[in-house]
Design goal:
With about 400 residues, this protein is α+β, with helices and mostly antiparallel strands. The chain folds into three domains: about 120 residues, Jelly Rolls (Sandwich); about 130 residues, Sandwich (Jelly Rolls), CATH 2.60.120.810; about 100 residues, Orthogonal Bundle (Arc Repressor Mutant, subunit A), CATH 1.10.10.60. The chain has a six-stranded mixed beta sheet with strand order 1-7-6-9-4-11, with no helix packed on it. A five-stranded antiparallel beta sheet has the order 2-8-5-10-3, with no helix packed on it. Strand 6 and strand 7 form a beta hairpin. Helix 1 packs antiparallel against helix 2. The termini are far apart. This is AraC family transcriptional regulator. One of its GO terms (molecular function) is DNA-binding transcription factor activity.
Amino acid sequence: MYDKTTSAQFRKYGSIYDEEKDMNKNDLIRKQIVTSDKVISSLYNFLEPAYIEIVEGMASILISDSNSGDFKLFAVHRNLEIKPNMYFNIISMTDIVKFNLIIPSSYNLKLEFLNPPYVYNRILPTINIPEIMAYYYTIKSPNYKFKGEKHNLYELTFVDRGTLDTSIDGVNYTLNSSDLIIYGKNQFHTQAVNNDLSCSYLTIMFDMKCDDESLICNKVFHCRKELYKIIRKFAKNISSEIPYSENLILSNFHEIIIRLFQYDYLDVDDAKLPTEAQQHFQDEILEAILAYINKMICSPITIEELCSKFAISRSSLQTLFKNNLNTSPKKYINDLKLSKSKELIKENKYTISEIAFMLGFNSIHYFSRAFTQHYEISPSEYAQTVFK
């Protein structure tokens, strides 16, 4: 974190001012300098006060009251008056910086050369993820086997529940709940569920440019608390319809990948998962799907729509409902629509035909037949029992 030249720490080296210097009145000369330097190999040293006025761009000043190498870096804010006999130079924080160096006409300058030069450390990304190509949540039954593939993308697999056996270029790995692995570009990988329990996992396909992929590929990561929280954020934001959610999803995923690069440097005290981790993504996804169905119950809802919105395959959606609700998604939606139809009939505001249309049934006949099969009474007969 930088101090600014307006801070108290800068007073050791100089001060700030607002009004431009009157060149004639003070017998000064102005030298306009344009620089893009991020590496400083020499320092100015004047026996007189010197003045710096930034004309264009953003700059910092490297300064010391001795040539011993004890330098301080300040972000330049306002015009600067540098005390006599200071060692300093200007560093461009933008592509270029233009500044006026104002000094007495009879100045005494000494250049102090630095060995090694001072290098300004810019804050630049070393990991770039331009795009997430695909993401989906999958539930695989016991004895599932995927023969394998390779492709020109990175692939992250996070196991939500169960155990997943995988191989990368012939090397075997086992992922348990809250473990993840990244397959590198063009790595042949297989997946299998080899026990008598199902396995659910999140898959993310993405492109990435980084300095050293070996730090995150070909190894199993056991999710620590901070990493797990970020993955949960990512999973929750996937189905968000709020504007700019795609930017938030990319930001979440960038943080996941950065945490993996930092994995070996993080505090081991972060290793224990929070209690809420016992609630798996599977439960959260089901809750979100049920909330969406309830919200949209008066609109046509298709299985394809649910799969697309919640990034889940058709077979995984079927398994999710079967395992947790002992029914199919289609039957759950129809049953909920029929339950809603009873409420609407009780309100006595709409005809049976209007209710059938409002709830997205194809025809009054289909609605009447479904209602009768479910409740063993027709809609019109039910209305008569309510209002007799």
